[in-house]
């Protein structure tokens, strides 16, 4: 078994090839809680497309209609500015989380870790056996037994990846859409079929072969961890004060050793192949497997638990921890600012409908002896899952009249429609081009004020031409 060090990554051999890690299974309170958390997250991932709120799945990215449904709230493309603040808020939340408890997100909640550790590794243990058996099987030449086990294991990998890919697709086309694709056949939905093939391949490759190397090599979160943590960050640490000097248990009373018996159990259970006794490392995802493994050994040798535990660097060296500190306050201030801006903008701009006004293509305006007319279109989008009636009218626009047969329109759930109308300015009130204001009000009282430019000839020239025309028509 390869010995971890601080100079090289355990998962990469000297020649650059991949070194397969086979973490041993472990039992303990942290492992049980982490496994329960993982299965809850897996169930949430599977069930969210099935749960309907206001007639749509709880989370539904409807790319075809360019709509995003999230827990009963429907966002259209013009509302995607919300995602900027939402993602920024998530980023600062991770900053706060990392500052307090390090990479606990990676070890407990990250979807990659959840699927890898609690689905694919469980399949591997079921088919190939425990860690020593898996290592022997890796080193053994290809034979009938090894071929059968590899075929069974990878068949399970492909099957699970196939299911996960279908669930992932349901977030974009819904469960009925996925079922329609299955019953209609690949030829009728070639894009979705290629999507399933691609993600089945990606999931199988990542979770079946690439594995922990994604966390170590590709994931950027581990890279900027050092910028987010400090001596007060609580993560998995080895208590070197108590454990050193390490050594095997002996009856020699004169040989004073620490509590660490150098059994390497913490190394054997690590999913990224590090030795936590070498200190905090980039590869550590704070999964707590080594904590349970060490506690189990300490119990067997009648020594106190907690040789490896969740603690801070300062807590290990001085016995004192300080949770509240300037870095944490700074992250919390940024998070509060982001949430405050999101709330303020959301309240001021987010409405249950969207209205936009444009000029009708063609003639800019028409002018005659009665007055000047402009034609406009209001494009309305109902964001609610119910019928809503909207009323539009001119406001704060003296000298202008709305000449339309009706000034109301009813839209069905999430329906879009366009209404055309004419704005008229009588000759005696016309004063030239000006801004006009149209108020659109839904039946629940929500309002949106639109601004448009009313175009026309210069008022003096227009009226002079009308007077000249009238004089020519009716000479004295």
From TrEMBL:
Coiled coil: none annotated. Residues 247-279 form the 4Fe-4S ferredoxin-type domain. Pfam families: Fer4_18 (PF13746), Fer4_5 (PF12801), FixG_C (PF11614). The keyword Iron-sulfur applies. InterPro entries: 4Fe4S_Fe-S-bd, 4Fe4S_Fe_S_CS, Cyt_c_oxidase_cbb3_FixG, Electron_Trans/Redox, FixG_C, Ig-like_fold. Keywords: 4Fe-4S, Electron transport, Iron, Iron-sulfur, Membrane, Metal-binding, Transmembrane, Transmembrane helix, Transport. The chain crosses the membrane at residues 36-60, 80-101, 154-173, 193-210, 328-347. NCBIfam families: ccoG_rdxA_fixG. This is 4Fe-4S ferredoxin-type domain-containing protein.
